Amino acid sequence: MTDLAARVRAALRAAGTPLWFPHLTQPLVDHTDARLQRDLGLTPGTYSTARVRGADADAPRDLVARLAPPKRESDEVAAVGVELLPAETERAYDDPGFRFLRPDEIRTAGALARAMDGLALLDAVPSVGSTVRRLVRSLHLLDTGDDDTDVSFSEPELPFSVFVSVPTSARPDAAIRVAEGILHEAMHLQLTLIESVVPLVNSDEGRYFSPWRNEQRPAQGILHALYVFRVIDAFLEQVAATRPGLPAGGDSVGGRRALIAAQVREVESFRDSRDLTAEGAALAARLLDASSAGAQPVRDARLRNPSPSR
Known about the structure:
This protein is α/β, with parallel strands linked by helices. The chain has helices at residues 2-13, 22-40, 49-54, 87-91, 103-108, 111-123, 126-135, 174-195, 219-242, 253-265, 278-289, and strands spanning 62-67, 80-84, 99-100, 138-143, 152-153, 161-165, 208-210, 215-217.
């Protein structure tokens, strides 16, 4: 634990390393797996959202599919499981903004293919894909009822589970939208694992304007959003270099990145927050100082529904 904390502290300040901290992910995952084994009797191979929520390692696990990693990583990274939840568990997530896709819809309506396309796009940046696949063991597919609206969420209590909507039609921007949703939530999970080892926030008293939520948020919420969107920006920069012209939800990748850069500028003063620990302040400064070179001026860029989880 002491060694892991030292590695995390060094990584938060290491400006030359990827923001998604690929070299830290497996040690953080191992640390969390040890806790799950101790508290619930769960192993990496038996993890499921339903089992964690029910605190029952013997509860049924309903996987409709396993999304295999690329061959280059097949011996190191497990497949992502597309998990179905029991009806009573689904009801705990009742929300007018989305519904869980049914098994027949996942198999026949193209949802599974679009989830696979989103993961494949993340795999196009190998260290991003492997990081995400180490963090996401249970993927839950949602339908918002509106193909122009995306929803994703995750919960700190579910360390390897993400909930992501998929467009119900085969549109050109489907893959990158699903990729962004999965990456968004995986990075929330990554930062939560980091916080379990090294605290980043020392108080929840302060409130700061969030351009992503358009409301006042505590320091932890701002830091999570800043981290997630900086990682998304870095991913988009790399994937756009290999796939020019890739649409990103009603706009170009350049427009999407420009919007993120503009939103980040709105929280520039957050670097001076007294609610951050020394490590949290170091991470915030690094995120705020990260280059946004290559982002184009904002031209009618639209932010789809941000994650409602944090």
